[in-house]
Design brief:
The complex is a heterodimer of chains A (99) and B (958). Chain A is an alpha+beta fold. Chain A is built from two helices and five strands, in the order H-E-E-H-E-E-E. The longest helix of chain A has 25 residues. The termini of chain A are far apart. The chains are: A alpha+beta (99), B alpha+beta (958).
Amino acid sequence: MTQAEVDDTLKRIQEHKGVQGYLIINNDGIPIRSNLDASLTQQYAALIKSLSDKARSTIREIDPSNELVFFRMRTKKHEILVAPEKEYTMIVLQATDVQ
Amino acid sequence: MSAPRTPTKSAGSKSSESKNPRESSSQSGTPPTGSAQRRSAAGSQLGSPVVRSGAASAVSPSGARDKLSSATNKQNAASPVPAPKSATERVEVAENAHFLPPGIHTIFISSATQQAMQLCVDEDLTQENNSKMIDKEILLNDIQTNGQGSNFYEFQQQIQSYPENEIAIIYDYDYYYSQNFLICFDSKLKKLIENPPVTLPIQESDEVEQYVPPVSKKWISLGSEVEIENERLVLNRPLKRYKIKVPDRIATTVSPSEKFKDLDPDIERKKNFVRIEQYEDKQFELKKMELDLAIQAAPDYRENSAQTIWRYPKNQWTQYEARTFTEEDKIKCMGDPVLMNMITNAKDLFSEALQQNIIHDPFYLDWKELGGNLDGLGGPGDSHLKEYQSFSSIKQSRDKIVTCVQWHPTLRGIIAVSLAAGQGFDERTDNLSRINTSPSLILIWSFVDPIQPKLYLEAPDDIQCFQFSPTDPHVIAGGCINGQVVMWDIKEYEERIKNPRGDHRDKDLFIPGFEDETFFQTPHIRYCAVSSIENGHSEPITDLQWIPDHYQITAQGLPTENLAMNCSQIMTCAFDNQVLFWETRVPRAGVKPLSKKEREINHPMGVPLTFKHLDLIWKPYLRVTMQSPETGMVDFAPRKFSMREIQGDRDTLNQEEKDLFEKKKDPSLGQFVNPLDDPNKSLSQAKAKVLQSIDTFFYIGTEDGQLVYQDWMPQKDQDSTKFSTPKAAWSIAVVDGPVVALKRSPFFKDVILVAGGWLFQIWKEKIHSGALLHAAPVKEKITDAEWSPTRPGVFYISKQNGSVDIWDIIDRTHAPSLSQSISSSAVTFLNIKVISSKQQLLAAGDSNGTLHILEVPWALRQPVNQELALVTNYLERETERRGFVKHRWDLREEEKREKERLASMKAGIAPSHIPTQEEIDIRMKNEFNEFLQFEFGVLREMGLRDENEAPVISSTAT
């Protein structure tokens, strides 16, 4: 996968209906790429990171051979989709009231 | 120590006799301590306090039981095992025998019997070893041989019945129980005697006394030597040495003049000579054996101090900046294959989730969207209006009808009602000559007091309509039946209205007998100003409205910005074919402000000066005269009118202005500043911009049931070059009686409800081909109509018979969803107000002068799901229908014309017009020109053509 393809993929995700933004953060919760504004990016990066760490440890605790791959959070305003991997985490926000 | 008491002895009884000769000699009346004497003196001794052995005293309790236990103690002490070392000399009393335990009896055994049974006192038995077991047989033998002489004779029975072989005989050493022996017939006690309890403390004390020579052990260090070492005094400074010197006796006391001389001992032997013999002083032989020494360590005086610094608590904070990557880092990270891998992995997951969300909302709850909660009081099941309160003044409401009802714009639970004589024109003219004594009034009611109105507003004549100023709620403008506009200012009475205490009849405020009667009475407030009679309406004013605060209308009819941002202009209409515009502010070149003194003078009847400048000279600044559409027809007699703009709706303003409005909404607003007080605030609207977006057209409902679409802006008449009101843009007769209500929907600015006669219709602005909703005539005359403020599809129609129809166009459009009777007489006016999100009140005045307040049920105030959309759809559909109808009309018109033409052609009456070639050419050219223009229009819209590239249209002139 090339850099261009990455951009392409992100663009495609972004083009889904109701998608408000995405961000990619590294293991330390430092945002690498985001199309949200700076303060919101910081907040999401820091908060979602700790949440996903917690979720991952929960899954590991229950079954050490298991691994958290993806989770979605439904909120009143939007749905937060999180894909935590070893090194990086990707977060996408989608508005729920798309209609 | 008292004399009779004998000292305790530690030795045996034998040695006691010789123990203390001094004591025994000093005793008088006490038996000698010797055992023989004691025995002989037994029984006759006076008791001395019992002194028991020290050992025994340790165990025995105090009190009466002492003696009993001491007896057992004694027995115990006599047991051979412990070998007591101490004994007590006792002097017994015969009564002591009472304390013997059952089974033990005193017995006297003679010395002969003693010898026979080997019980010799002091030989076989001693004080310590004082019991002996004798065989039953021996005792019985003794009884047999000696018969009554036997010492044991009296106990024969007991001896015989004694179950064991041996009987214990106890030697009562000190005749404590009055005989020298005790015999025991209780086997348990016998055992006790044989084996006295080993746990007795007496034994413990014995053990303590036994000396066990200590065995030397090897010393084991447990660390104590360190302590000792620590405790040791080490000289770390030279010992202090103090020299105490007592001054010598002053040598001078010895007289230096003392003279010594030799004396001859022989001569003055007797006089002065003393010979002291030499002797050995024993004092010097004493050897110092012991020496008391005391050392006291006196510490050096030392002063020390330590202090810690108390640092007061401080708030501390840290601030950190979120870690971020630089752009280069980010780019580097983005190029990380791990990240790319992650994105590849996550891509599908995300797409799936995102698409799922778009396709279907799993969290959508149909039930929740169904509409509202179905439980609770006033739920959808109950859709009837509920009587909430009703106001009727006994004095003032009589023979009056309610002409207008207005809610106070800001204060809750305050409502104003205007009352007028319910007379027809004829009656009125008949009564014109009579002096009407009762003034025309507007009553201001408060919900807290349904008996007495809060205020009466006096009017020069009956009020047909009135309205609170939306921005200054204490200013009320009313329209009189005589054509005058009346202004009130109730600012001074605002407190009274607000006061929740119902009736001001708080008697505690006044001393009895000194009540201020006027205080309890409802004040009558005189109007501040009336308009000039000659310049105003000449007919009863039928409708009055304040122009919304976001714009104002100039004398030229132009809507401009309202820089003052409060309502100051009033619009009225009357039957005299006029709609008038009134300005309440002082004109710029107006009256000079009055001085304070003048003001005081010009303050009759306590009327506020707010509108002093208007009183009796007030003229409308703009007149809209309604002309008949065609000559020969009656001019329009306006009865109700409706403007497009409504108070509080600022959509026509641009965002900037809106913000300005919000900003200017300071709390001081709502104070109608007396223009005399503030001349700067007078009309200075020169800078005001013209608001293009405000529609100057408005609808008028007339006395004849017409609906008129009229522009208020005057236009230059071509003939006279004067400005005059243009002709009505459009008019149509809509209802079969005077228009009584012309109300715009609160949701759709262009939807108008027209009611009058027995009909009501819903019209849409600028759709003049017909009504959107044309209901069938109702059976009773309609008196008023009102839209629901919260439900777009609901409106209320009040009728002559005192009922109110509730229409819900979502439910059905051919009939009211509900009809409810409210009053026995005709309902004359409806006004609805949203009190809170949970309460909505409908005020209905009737022709008896009573004001009914009805609570709107839940179903009628809570919009159904997507009601607005549904009603919008409905209205759009109807509008389309109107368009279609119009289209069909045109078609029919054409068809008709065509038919007529053909018919006339056939009949040969009309000259059959056969177009010549020239005519055909012209027509085709026209069509071509039309096409060119259309094409140009399209192209320009698409931005492909410029304005100046207009097509050259060839002349069509023939």
